[in-house]
Amino acid sequence: MSAAPLLSLQNLSTHYVSQHGSRVVRAVDDVTLDLHAGESLGIVGESGSGKTTLALAILRLLPPAARIVSGRMLFEGEDLLAKPDGDMRRVRGKRIAMVLQDPMASLNPLFSIGDQVGEPIRVHEGAGRASAWQRAIGLLKSVRIASPETRVRQYPHEMSGGMRQRIVGAIGISCGPRLLIADEPTTSLDLTIQAQYLELLRDLQRQRGLALIFITHNLGIVAKMCDRLAVMYAGRVVEQGPVAQLFNAPAHPYTRALLGSLPRMSDNRERLTAIEGQPPDLSSLPPGCAFAPRCPMAAPRCATQAPPAFVLGEDHSARCWLAAPVAAA
């Protein structure tokens, strides 16, 4: 793409540090990613690979023990790391919004749906309560909540799981952000509601020109929703590129292992393929490739030398010695 990225993460590293600094967990390690306007980027990986920490780092909403230790985060050409806290508060919810995994953790049980959907409008646009409620009714309509005039007066416990997920989606788009980060937004939904919610997200993206970061364990969702895919392992992006490229010709053994563990209707296998072993402790990573102890294709150098990101084609790269050009292999 010739246009400048909407979001550009450059060598971003985020660490969790214990109280006395004796333990450092490298939750996000040297991540470089670009996202263009209107594009969908899927981020996948096992639990603990750094996906959610990366999303929280973009919004600078990290817990007290976490530190962004290096790198740059450019959003619409501005470095988010250089912004004072007050300026970042004006970015969150207005220009970058996030839908969290558990809607009940996002919604306050003491406030009505109308007040919660309308709150970003009041904070960022200075609207009064009545005006914000009218906007909230329209937003609930846009996320296909029936009888929105009634629902704005109700409370989260009066909603089903699927409705609560739609409501946090309405909050996310309330101020017309350029970027929406969705962190496992379908985990608690049954398959029918999940399909409806994904279709809704896709429609909202088309209508509003949203860029979307979709964090998930579900590669089927990535195939349906995303233009590009980044695969994270032990805090690093080990492979990234167009979805079709990574699904059809994955270059990293971890990407192949994730795809190999997917159930297929045509398979005659009695058992699913599993990835042997466990992800590494991020506070004591091995000196070489973090995936080497679990990799069936590991060579001796993999245990001692961490591979750089090798460029394999347009917008496709992988951190694996198997992907190295002949001269570097």
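Next protein, fold it too.
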Amino acid sequence: MHFLFGFGLVAWLLLQHLEVSAQALRFQPQGATAAGQGNAFVAQADDASAIHYNPAGLSQVEGLQAVYGTTLLGGSIKYKSPTGIDTRGDFGGSIAFPPPSHTYLSANLRALGWDSLSNVTVGLGLTSPFGLNTRYPVDGPFNTAITSAALPLIDIKPTVAYKLNDQLAIGVSADIYTFAGFLGQGHAEQRQAGSGALAGASVEFNGKGTGAGATVSLLYTPLRNGDGKPLASIGLVYRTQAVVPLSGSFLVSGAKIADASANLVLPQMYTGAIAIWPVRTSEREWKLELDVEYVGWKSMRDLDVHLSSGGVIPQPQQWKTVPVVAIGTEYKWLNPDWLPHWDVAVRSGYTRTENPVPDTTFNPGIISLSSNTLSIGAGFLCKGQGQFLGLMSCGGVSSLSPKAIGLDVAFQEWFYEPRTVAGNLNLTVNGTYQAYVHLGTVSAKFMF
């Protein structure tokens, strides 16, 4: 019975971490253009990163485009117990490694020689939306709850967008979630110090699997300027629930004790966004955008753990659906006299993220705290006779050369509200938590 209880507790804590990390630190910046605007990009969605933010927006991306980027992230989680004992956690080091990264490739079929399919744009994305690690001292005050956790999931996103007319486009993408060895150990993992009958042991649970969901979206543009560019756009996105079946092992001091399985459920999400351009001329552009997203954690009612012995450990949850609100702006100079053959953009934004997790199921393995995020960013697009970094022509000297090259950078600071946890199912977790996260995102863009 001690073994069964210990195993159930370990599995429950791991699975709780996996689920909550998807929202409390669901990794929202998946491109520097959006990150600089507080991730308010669903109604703009005018580069290849639309594959993630709004697949329908991919219909705006002409020719061939490739976007590659990564994020450097640091921060810490501070804890003080009711008796005054302190500890601190981080994300695997002063800078999270491997860094969360993103890749997007898109092609309008006209660029591939299919003129009759010029209204169709296809793309492929590769992101790491939940790929962060957390670690605490092995001799910390709640080491029987957690000492480290990792969830190196990647999302593979084949995408198609179709432009119905000048006002309306639709898009759809698959979301194939799986684990990747190049993002770490290639499986979900949580470690803790053993307690009770397992006191003194290094207890570990790991598992891996693959699941799928889908994203469907539309982009409605009721108003354009004389050059055909949007002056107002509305984006709607729905992401389905995805279930990743985890099959793994329960280990004590490295030795496998039992098999275990569970379903990692990623929530459905609804997003609505509106963007307006108060200024949009041949010389400059100014955009304002508001995005509102609802993340459906309410559907996560339990995290039952299935043991190889045939037993089931029920684990009811009490999470709630929460909103995420993002406001962003972008001001852009087009081919200015002070930097000819370049477009230059400055960006800023704010994001409010609510905490979906009650005290009873709180886990220190993630930052399950409400947060306010401030963002700033800049973008540089070199074209025509410009020289990118003074090293290469941006205007396409051959058919294989890009027509334009861009570099986007963003910085975000996440200000988390302190939280005091009481009444947790694991009493050692009770206490006060504070956290901060700062991150920088960079994306390189190539347009052919």
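About the second fold: Residues 1-25 have pLDDT under 50 and may be disordered.
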